[in-house]
Amino acid sequence: MYLVHAELRPKDGGIPPEHTGQLIFGCRRPADGIEHVVLHADGSDGGLVGLFVLAPSVEEAEHTAAAVCRRALDSSPELAGFLLGRCGVRIVPEYYDQRFRDGDHGRDMPRQD
User: Fold this and answer.
1) Alpha carbon 23 to its chain's center
2) Which end of the chain has fewer CB atoms < 10 Å from its terminal CB, N or C?
């Protein structure tokens, strides 16, 4: 499962409605693998949506999340004033810092020496 963040950018200012997560979740299809959607609105323009996606790869998770968000933006009158900005999995630097401290130098697999 991947957590994909999607930025919703307002065309003319404003923040997405509180139930944006439900609007996007309602646009998923069974094959999309969307498990949960949540809106993180901090009071500034726009919002950040978190989508939990079951997918075989990060690329597929990002592609699916973007497609579902676009579907919601195109079909929901309440989201008509927003555009999809960046949509992707965020890197967690602390994870790689810990891997480096643990002595594997951040490698996810052995070298092919």
Assistant:
1) 15
2) C
